[in-house]
């Protein structure tokens, strides 16, 4: 029986709270690969840690509760989580992906799964007509990010779920940018939700992890089979770290978003800035849809500087905000999608969808907003040619 109602409490008390045997308020780190059995075929629920580990299980129960799903699975990285989900399909099947998704998602489909006859189609999932046209009879799943990486485009998750259901395909949502604190895709009709937990869920740029939650028992059984068969599981210590991080998700996200709203406004009004992509700005693509399906616009911003400003000089002049891959940590980071996170996408596809060489992606951290604003402003001044 749950004795709380709100997600802020679930973040702390969800899944398995504490340790029944000792009363420890935290789930212990069961750093073990195997378990003694009481006799042939007689075990205490655990046989081998690839198949099941109590610390990982506490995390898996927690994320399933937070996303309001049937069961959860923890993997060694976001890519291992995506690979496990894509392993649900077979040769001859096809998946539709949003026209801007994380470069690694595109790469694993293009360079790995395609070799096994599992094909992909890229579609603008913000446009329901374009998506309908892409739903050929061999399409077994649609994978979207909303907001998507790196242009922060918003897809109507509920509308897409209805469309996908009519074709008896599965809707997979990568919820990395929002977290269940801001958006819960299963409640909007998605079948599978996944995360690079390396990002906001981990929150401190100190671990690599992936999570998956499914809405049905049948998908749960299939995914557990794949997790055990392919083996990309999260280790007990990292599972513990992730549980610990998730406890503070709501306070971190509130501060991330508060800073992001301020910085998006600053960039929007700045004379040196050509375009700002942030779903929390009222004139952004998908602003109304995002408000219907999410608590707010999140804390990722992308932007372009006007001609006459050098992005190289901008990156080199930043003093507080670091140039680095990744996002969602307490510290603010910038990256250059064209040569970093999205470099594995061929230039012609990148340019077609708007991932230009001038695009800058900013992961807004939880420092004081005024320090972040000052750093951005001085780096933009230095970037003027
Ligand atoms: C939206 C999104 N999904 C998935 C991934 C892959 O996750 P990981 O780096 O934890 O393997 C990333 C990584 O940047 C991401 O941004």
Automatic annotation (TrEMBL):
GO terms for biological process: cysteine biosynthetic process via cystathionine; transsulfuration. GO terms for molecular function: cystathionine gamma-lyase activity; cystathionine gamma-synthase activity; pyridoxal phosphate binding. It holds the Pfam family Cys_Met_Meta_PP. Transmembrane segments: none annotated. Keywords: Lyase, Pyridoxal phosphate. PROSITE patterns: CYS_MET_METAB_PP. The modification N6-(pyridoxal phosphate)lysine is found at residue 199. The keyword Metal-binding does not apply. Its cofactor is pyridoxal 5'-phosphate. InterPro entries: Cys/Met-Metab_PyrdxlP-dep_enz, Cys_met_metab_PP, PyrdxlP-dep_Trfase, PyrdxlP-dep_Trfase_major, PyrdxlP-dep_Trfase_small. It comes from the Bacteria. GO terms for cellular component: cytoplasm. Coiled coil: none annotated. Belongs to the trans-sulfuration enzymes family. This is Cystathionine gamma-lyase.
